[in-house]
Automatic annotation (TrEMBL):
Classification via Gene3D superfamilies: Dihydrodipicolinate Reductase, domain 2, NAD(P)-binding Rossmann-like Domain
Enzyme Commission code(s) on record: 1.1.1.179, 1.3.1.20
SUPFAM superfamilies: Glyceraldehyde-3-phosphate dehydrogenase-like, C-terminal domain, NAD(P)-binding Rossmann-fold domains
Residues in Gfo/Idh/MocA-like oxidoreductase N-terminal domain copies: 4-122
Keywords (A to Z) from UniProt: Oxidoreductase
Source species of the chain: Anopheles stephensi (Indo-Pakistan malaria mosquito)
Similarity annotation: Belongs to the Gfo/Idh/MocA family.
Molecular function as annotated in GO: D-xylose 1-dehydrogenase (NADP+) activity; nucleotide binding; trans-1,2-dihydrobenzene-1,2-diol dehydrogenase activity
Protein name, UniProt field: Trans-1,2-dihydrobenzene-1,2-diol dehydrogenase
Length: 368
């Protein structure tokens, strides 16, 4: 079969890392053929760096390019719906960065349209495709931790200077930017949607959240306590507690150096082990875990031709592989990040935003 022909929309940090990740996959399976950016010079530089043959100013030329099979959408949050729909209208499959859309109503409209068009569309929750996440799910499914009773998740960095986080006009806020990670890992553990949500938060002068705390109540009495912050560096851990033991997804020492919209992260990982405990390191992009029996399992990532900016971003290759696998099979969604999963996550984000008083213009257009 011919390689899947990828186009990338936007030439920012995450798009750069996605291109780096795809470069580590077999050329017989994946090929980067085009990139579009708001500025032609940015697109040209991006294409030159990554060896991409075609570059465009704007995104419409990508939609019109007949040699593109699938589009990776790496724009700011509030452009996800418009750009993804444009690509679907043109007959392109879509892998869209998280959050898929600004609210559940918008996400549902996009996913319904993708299904009507008979095209694959997936929210790029890359965490779930790491081998360590798959191993974690298998452990939980086998009952090795017993019944899951509680999940504790904290995720935060000093990000108040980053436009995509602080500005309402870009679909900002920690619920949309960081919250998706905390929500998805809780749902990954419980394998269910919460039945009740209690939330509180702090807003900036733009009216978007710079920090939240929330408790998600799951069927059977389980709870997930989540916290996000764009002000403080949090412990950045996820702890999954069952009746037989606990799994801790733990981050070590984190240093930040930010420049404009790019966040550079260096992490030194620490290892801990206790009886009946599994440790999963760097919970949003884990490449190592300490299993229940004390075995350290490593899933090293290959080196990319061009260096990634963010931690373990070569792991974006896993979601690219999943995208190809499902498209080749003629499937419209992935069971690991299903349409139902994306709608459930968006619904939790909507509930939290409503409780803490964060409103987006899209909330008045796309109703749940």
């Amino acid at each position: 079969m011919a390689p899947l022909r990828w186009a990338i929309v936007s030439a920012g940090t995450i798009s750069h890392d996605f291109a780096c990740a795809v470069s580590t996959l077999p050329a017989t399976d994946h090929k980067l053929v085009a990139v579009g950016a708001r500025g032609l010079e940015n697109a040209r530089k991006f294409a030159e760096l990554h060896g991409i043959p075609r570059f465009y100013e704007g995104y419409e030329p990508i939609a019109k390019d007949p040699e593109v099979d699938v589009v990776y959408v790496g724009t700011v949050n509030n452009a996800h719906y418009e750009v993804s729909r444009m690509m679907l209208e043109a007959g392109k499959h879509v892998l869209c960065e998280k959050p898929l859309c600004v609210n559940r109503g918008q996400a549902r409209a996009l996913l319904d349209f993708a299904r009507e068009r008979g095209l694959f569309c997936m929210e790029a929750i890359w965490s779930r495709f790491f081998p360590s996440y798959i191993h974690l799910r298998e452990r939980i499914a086998r009952g090795d931790l017993g019944r899951i009773e509680r999940v504790e998740v904290q995720f935060g960095f000093p990000l108040t200077h980053v436009e995509r986080v602080r500005m309402k006009s870009l679909g900002g806020g920690t619920v949309l930017d960081l919250g998706v990670y905390t929500i998805q890992v809780a749902m990954w553990a419980f394998q269910a949607e919460p039945v009740k949500i209690d939330a509180a938060g702090q807003l900036n002068d733009e009216g978007v959240d710079v920090g939240i705390t929330a408790t998600l109540h799951f069927p059977g009495g389980g709870v997930a306590n989540i916290k996000t912050s764009a002000i403080d560096k949090l412990p950045n851990t996820a702890v999954i507690i069952g009746t037989k033991g606990s799994i801790t997804v733990r981050i070590g020492v984190i240093e930040h150096n930010s420049h404009e919209r790019n966040i550079f992260t260096k992490i030194r990982v620490l290892f801990f082990f206790h009886f009946t405990t599994m440790k999963l390191h760097d919970f949003w992009c884990p490449v190592e875990l300490t299993d229940i029996d004390g075995t350290v399992r490593s899933y090293p990532l290959p080196a990319s031709k061009v260096e990634c900016i963010l931690l373990n971003s070569v792991g974006l290759r896993y979601e690219a592989e999943e995208t190809r696998r499902r498209i080749v099979a003629g499937e419209l969604e992935s069971p690991s990040v299903s349409h139902k999963d994306s709608l459930a996550i968006a619904g939790v984000q909507d509930s939290i935003r409503k409780q803490i008083g964060v409103e987006m213009p899209e909330d008045y257009i796309f109703k749940n």
